[in-house]
Amino acid sequence: MAEPTLTSSTPGERPLRADARRNRERVLAAARAAFAQEGEEVQMEAIAKRAGVGVGTVYRHFPTKRALLDTLRRQWLADGAAHATLALSHVEPAKALTVFVRRAADLLARDRGIREAFERLDRGSGETVWSPEFEGYRTGVARLLDRAHEAGVLREEIDLSRFLALLSGVGAAVGNGLDPRLAADVLLQGIRPPAP
Question: What are the tens digits of pLDDT across the range 45-96?
């Protein structure tokens, strides 16, 4: 999952003035850092302080904490889709899957906000953001899995929903202190086809 790409406005909104766009980007960067450390418990006031703006500025761009979280989730999903595409650049399907899983485990270990968002995604929470970013993420990961199946390096029963559930388990494990490299390697070993 790549570093965040901040957008100036969401689809359908009129473009923001330069100063308002800068403030929005500062709020998003501060929110991303705050959620990485504290998860969804972080308060809007703390985000405003981290961004160096008044709390009114935060609410002007994001009227609710849910609106801010939805924007961050779309960013996280877009980053995940970009990471899946990058992993697909590896010619070997097993290598592509390994790169994706290890990077995801590392990111889940470092970012509590992404971990919590991923848990909601796996549970099918009503708060899941159904968006082009979500579909892009699913499509990218599905392509990784399809290539691995075609190459015979992934168990037949591991479909997209099971793979995402297993990644959510990696998130829970690293959130409880397990080394991300170990968590990734255990998952990768478990999804290989059994020896004949």
Answer: 999 999 999 999 999 999 999 999 989 989 999 999 999 999 999 989 999 9
Q: What is the DSSP string of 125-161?
A: -TT---SHHHHHHHHHHHHHHHHHHHHT-S-TT--HH
Helix axes 160-175, 112-123, angle to 10 degrees: 140
Contact in structure between 188 and 97 (CB atoms under 8 Å): yes
Cα–Cα distance measured from residue 48 to residue 65, given in angstroms and rounded to the nearest whole number: 12
Q: Give DSSP secondary structure letters for 18-73.
A: HHHHHHHHHHHHHHHHHHHHHGGG--HHHHHHHHTS-HHHHHHH-SSHHHHHHHHH
Sequence-distant (6+) residues with CB within 8 A of 46 are 34, 38
CB 196 within 8 A of CB 143: no
What is the pLDDT, as a whole number, of residue 1?
Answer: 42
Place 105 in a pLDDT band, splitting at 50, 70 and 90: very high
Per-residue pLDDT band at 103 (split at 50, 70, 90): very high
Could you give the CA distance from residue 108 to residue 32 in angstroms, rounded to a whole number?
13
